[in-house]
Amino acid sequence: xxxxxxxxxxxxxxxxxxxxxxxxxxxxxxxxxxxxxxxxxxxxxxxxxxxxxxxxxxxxxxxxxxxxxxxxxxxxxxxxxxxxxxxxxxxxxxx
Length: 95
Description:
This protein is mainly alpha-helical. The chain contains 2 helices and 2 strands, in the order αββα. Strands 1-2 form a two-stranded antiparallel sheet. Helix 1 (19-31) crosses helix 2 (67-91).
């Protein structure tokens, strides 16, 4: 499957997130291991071992993902709660 060139995005119609959907996403964030999560890639961040995501609990080792996917997953742990808080503030929601 060919990856989409994100530098040439066409406008996509994406439905708005409802307050309930935002609450559901926030609950999933709260249920996950506390952040921050950090992506470690062999040869980039350390010199021996495997690629992994460091959490406040057990490390996460993924199989079959790209470095970009791993970095995205790790960053999402910090990014999603911040984005949800901003969305709630702008919409006047209480999550």
